Amino acid sequence: MSRLDGTFQRLKAARRKALVTYISAGDPSLRATVPAMHTLVSAGADIIELGLPFSDPEADGPSIQAAYERALGAGTNLSRVLEMVAEFRGGDRETPVVLMGYLNNIERMGFATFADRAHEAGVDGVLMVNLPPEEAADLKRELERFDISLIFLVAPTTTRGRAKLIAGQASGFIYYVTLKGVTGASHAVVDDVMRRIEPLRGLSDLPILVGFGIKSAQSASDFAIAADGVVVGSVLVDIMGAHAGSEEAIFPELAKCVGAMRVAMDANT
Description:
alpha/beta, TIM Barrel, globular, 12 helices
């Protein structure tokens, strides 16, 4: 059983919702990432989503774009991200790690080489924002050699037919985007998200997580009611950026933010 599957099974048995926390690898420095990952887990994160910095992001708002710029300026690349995951695994063998980013980085390394190295590092899932399911077969085949999940996005504008296609290709979980826009926006409505998620339940048995625009303990708690968990990113990335010159201050602020979300989500289940 994969770490992702095991995590969702444990959460379901405990009647808890998944809290997935996103940060960009290498932001604001290479040395900050692994301690931040451990801090997030200690504060209550169930899954770590680690961003692959890319120079031309298509779905990310200003906060994550700025994080990518800081990370690239610090010398972050795909090889170094995999080294970070391996270092994290030295102290945590249980928490799933999902890499989220753009296919360009992986294409340059080569799908087979990437899958080999991701497995060796301890990666559990991959979400490539600009990889449509129609073009995913080659990467999926390489990842399946190691039971690494290939995760896809479903948007408010996704038709039922296309959602069915995505559900048939996805593994690990389905990531439902709460709004029409980029990461960091904040105009999603819980009732609308709940209404749109319900038809997905008939297309897949995979957990459905929601993300984009979840910035507070209250919004995390509210959206967790509608899904199997939430993905929180921009608010954490903002903390990383705000303390780029004093990195020791990052970790207690991350813990405070994530801890509040964990408490609010658990109180609402």
